[in-house]
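Below is one such record:
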Amino acid sequence: MSHAPRTVAVGGDCPYLIHIGPGLLGAGDLLAGAVRGRHVLLVSDDTVAPLYLARVRAALHQARPDLAVGEYLIPAGEASKTLHHFGGAIDALATLGATRDACVLALGGGVVGDLAGFAAACWMRGVDCVQLPTTLLSMVDSSVGGKTAVDIAQGKNLVGAFHPPRAVIADTAALRTLPVRELRAGLAEVIKYGCIRDPLFFQWLQAERDALLAGDDAALAQAIARSCEHKAEIVARDPLEKGERALLNFGHTFGHAIETAQGYGAPGSDNLNHGEAVAVGMVLAARLSAALGMAGDDAADALRDLLRAYGLPVAIPAGLDPAALLAHMRLDKKNLAGRLRLVLWRGVGRAEVVADVDEAAVLAVLRTG
C-alpha cells in the first residue's frame, strides 16, 4: 500500500476534501489555502498543543505572513467539551477581531473538533472551520460530516449545530504519538463501518489486526481512507441526519448512555473513553438485535470477538445502573415522540434504524451487560 497522501471528496450542498497523509500539519500551502480571510483562531488542548501547535502556526505564517493567528487551549478530555469552554472560544474570536471570513482551525481529537466547530458555527452566524484531527477516532469519524456540539450534565452532544468544515487535513504521522489506548478507541469506530455496511472491510480488519495495532502507516492510511469514504458517501446524501446518516450511530446510543452515567471521565481515569463506550454499545446493539430476532447470536459473537482481539471492552462497566442507562438513552436525539429509535443490524454489514424499540427488551440487555 502506498504512503502517498490520499484525498477523499465529500459531496452534497457543501462539498469539501479530506486530505490524508503524513506531514500534512507542516504543509503551509495546504493549510493556508483553506483560509479565505486574514483571521485564524487555532483551538487545541494542553496535550496536543505542545506537540503540534507551533508547527501549524509556523507553516501558516510561512505561507501567509499576513495572517493574524490567535490561540485558545482547553484541558484535554471529554470533561472540557462544555458551554464554559465554548464561551472561551467565542471570547477568543472576539479578542482576535475575527471577521466573517475568519477561520477556526481545530487541532486535536474529537473534543477539540466538536467544540471548535460549534464556536465556528455560532460566531457571526457561521465562519469557516478546518478540522486538523490528531487522533484516529477523530480522523475517521468526528472531523467528517459537520456535527458539532458540547455536552451538558443531562447528556452528550445535546447542544450543537450542523456546520460542515471547509476542509479536513488528517496528518497520519500524528498517530505515532497516540497512546495505545487512544489508538484502540479509534479502531472501534473503524470497525463500526464494517458493521454497518461493509462485510469485506470487516474481514480485512480481522486479517490486519496485528498491523493496525502495531501502528503500521500503510494499514492505518487504508483504514482511515476506507472509513472516510463510507462516511463521505452517507453524509453527502443525508447531511442533516434525516435518514441514512443515523446508521453511523451504531452502538452510540448505548455508548453515550455509558459515558453520561460515568460523568465524562478525565484522561487516565478508569472510565471508558468514547471509542471504548462505542465498542460496548455495538455489542449491546448486536445482542439486542439477536434478542429481537433480527440477527443470530453468531453475528454478535463475531463482533464481540473482533473487538476483544483489538483489546477493546465488550461489557458494561461494573456499578452502572441499567435503569439509569435506559433513562439516558431516552434523551438520544434519534428518538421520536418519546419512543426509542435505535440502530440495530441483521448481521455484519446490514445495519438499519429501528423505530419504537421495546424498552423492556433494551432493559433486559442492559441488565445482562
About this structure: The CA atoms of residues 22 and 173 lie 5 Å apart. The chain has a mean pLDDT of 95.
